[in-house]
Design a protein that fits this description.
This protein is an alpha/beta fold. It is built from 19 helices and 21 strands. The strands form six sheets. Strands 15-16-14-13-19-20-21 form a seven-stranded mixed sheet, sandwiched between helices. A six-stranded mixed sheet has the order 3-2-1-5-12-11, sandwiched between helices.
Length: about 575
């Protein structure tokens, strides 16, 4: 794509807040040309073993972040991307952001994070709970059981289960483990909405996270009576999340003087309503039409697809009217671990001399389908869809003395493709067709992995035409918020790009994978649907052993043993 500029060209900035860093991208409005980018790593990263403020150990399955790391992305990555682009700041007309989700934090009424209050700096529950904070499974189980017991009408919109990753489970954990911090939390807000608040000084709630993570359906949240039945002190929770809902691509406000100083952009520049990294990517990949499923593959995978009709799909993360783009029902599913699984194997399990993605991929690619004799379950970070249980764990079946590192590596790659096929089939069975798979994210460069996905799913696989899919998607929404395009669909057509049919399924490999996938499904149902709860029992034993050796986080009450399990 040509990057030669014209005198009347205007530009927007997209900022993608990921798990370990934030990326800023400067994009030309008329055609989506990417002019400059910069990355800023979070200083505290992911706090999953100890709190950065004082070093206190954290219990199992926690994952926290420091919100000032997000401000640092605005202070460093945005000015650096602008400098790299050579674009004059006065030619920038808008800024948009996307975030991991559900990444959520407690604040005061003015948006001050509780963890920034001096007396709460060493209270873990005052911090951001990252999407992969999975310590609220007990609360999620109660939320689901009570919803079915009461016949709550919204539970079917989420495939029958609310995830431990979403807003309610994490907030209920906060209440029950640190009620003082819960009481001082005047707002409980997605990081996507919080960073927009920091940019424009106005609190908004985007319809995407409100629907998928905040259980906002048909114009309302769960009732006060339902919440009180979970815990009497939880009855007021909706007051902490309720706020003005704004459509995707809408204008949240103008850049404040403080945010202008951080970013180097002009004060008053349009700030787009916040969004989720996966959902903005659909626009970047020109995949807003129904039937085009986008898999954003990185540390985890999020699957999003538009549909024309409302359907309740078992095990899904949710269906939301306008949750991906206006005029469609947006469906979301996901896998809690994908790239993290491959990284775990290379970093912690591969023998010396084999700890290389490139080497293992090369050796794995030389194998015929099924030659390793293995099947793995992709639950190394729990299961988001279809089972919605983060106490599940990984399994590899078929290991022998002849098994070699590349065998295991390929089995792990294949396991994530099987998990995606489970999701696609669940959509199809519920009447939500998936005709094409489009992949975005950092894993698109692994050609073996992409071909495995095409063969396992038996669908043509396209590749997004940008290495910065979420940031480009955020820039597209910023262009709409600034009035440069009439709506997200028009902006996507002008600024997005995709290579369709980059990988096509091979009939012989498809047949071979059908046989292996049948074994995956048997293992999936046996270990995940009540055939044997050994994985849950092992998790309970592990948590009990760890809780005996880890002090209770500061300010928290000791948990009953059944909660720790």
């Amino acid at each position: 794509m040509s990057v030669s500029s014209e005198p009347d060209d205007r530009y927007v900035v997209g900022v993608d807040f990921g798990t370990l860093s934030g990326r800023a991208l400067v994009v030309r409005v008329r055609d989506g040309a990417e002019l400059g980018t910069a990355v800023h790593a979070y200083r505290s990263g992911v706090m999953d073993s100890a709190l950065a403020a004082d070093g206190q150990p954290l219990p199992a399955d926690w994952a926290l972040q420091d919100p000032d790391d997000y401000r640092d992305v605005l202070r460093h990555a945005v000015p650096a991307a602008l400098a790299a682009s050579g674009v004059a700041p006065e030619r920038v007309i808008g800024i948009g952001i996307d975030f991991t989700a559900c990444t959520v934090l407690p604040t005061l009424a003015d948006g001050t994070p509780l963890c920034e209050l001096p007396d709460l700096r060493t209270r873990p529950h005052a911090y951001v709970k990252l999407w992969k904070h999975h310590a609220a499974q007990h609360q999620a189980d109660r939320i689901n059981a009570l919803a079915h017991e009461r016949g709550e009408p919204w539970i079917g919109r989420y495939g029958g289960k609310i995830s431990a990753e979403w807003q309610y489970a994490k907030a209920l954990q906060l209440l029950e483990e640190d009620p003082e911090v819960y009481g001082r939390a005047e707002r409980w807000i997605e990081a996507a909405d919080w960073i927009v608040w920091q940019l424009c000084g106005v609190e908004t709630r985007n319809v995407c996270t409100a629907g998928y993570k905040g259980i906002h359906q048909d114009g309302r949240y769960p009732s006060r009576e339902y919440l009180a039945a979970l815990n009497p002190d939880f009855a007021d929770f909706v007051e902490k999340i309720d706020g003005p809902l704004a459509p995707l691509g809408g204008r949240a406000g103008g850049l404040t003087a403080q945010a202008a100083a951080w970013t180097g952009l002009p004060e008053g520049v349009a700030v787009a309503v916040g969004n989720v990294d996966a959902h903005v990517t659909a626009a970047a990949a020109q995949a807003l039409d129904p039937g085009r499923l986008v898999a954003i593959m990185g540390t985890s995978t999020c699957h999003v697809v538009n549909g024309t009709e409302l359907a309740e799909v078992a095990g899904m993360c949710g269906v939301v009217d306008g949750g991906i783009s206006a005029g469609h029902w947006g469906y979301e599913a996901g896998q809690s671990g994908v790239g993290d699984i491959f990284g775990w194997y290379v970093d912690h399990a591969a023998p010396e001399g084999y700890a290389s993605h490139e080497l293992l991929t090369e050796q794995a690619a030389a194998q015929p389908v099924g030659a390793h004799g293995l099947v793995a379950l992709d639950w190394w970070n729990g299961n988001r869809s279809l089972l919605v249980n983060h106490d599940l764990s990984g399994v590899i079946v078929g290991l022998t003395l002849a098994t070699r590192p590349a065998d295991v590596y390929r089995a792990l790659l294949e396991s994530t493709a099987y998990g995606t096929r489970m999701i696609i089939e669940a959509f199809a069975e519920a009447g939500v067709p998936v005709d094409e798979l489009i992949v975005a994210g950092g894993l698109t460069g692994n050609r073996l992995l992409m071909q495995i996905y095409a063969d396992v799913t038996n669908r043509p696989l396209g590749i997004i035409g940008s290495a910065q899919g979420p940031a480009l998607g955020s820039a597209i929404h910023a262009a709409v918020a600034a009035g440069a395009h009439p709506d997200v669909a028009a902006a996507s057509a002008a600024m997005g790009r995709v290579e369709r049919d980059a990988y096509l399924p091979d009939p012989e490999r498809v047949r071979a994978y059908d046989a292996l996938y049948a074994e995956y499904r048997r293992l999936h149902d046996h270990f995940g649907r009540g055939g044997d709860d050994v994985l849950l029992r092992l998790r309970a034993i592990r948590n009990a052993a760890r809780s005996a050796s880890v002090p209770t986080p500061a300010g928290e009450a000791a948990l009953p043993q059944e909660v720790m399990a």
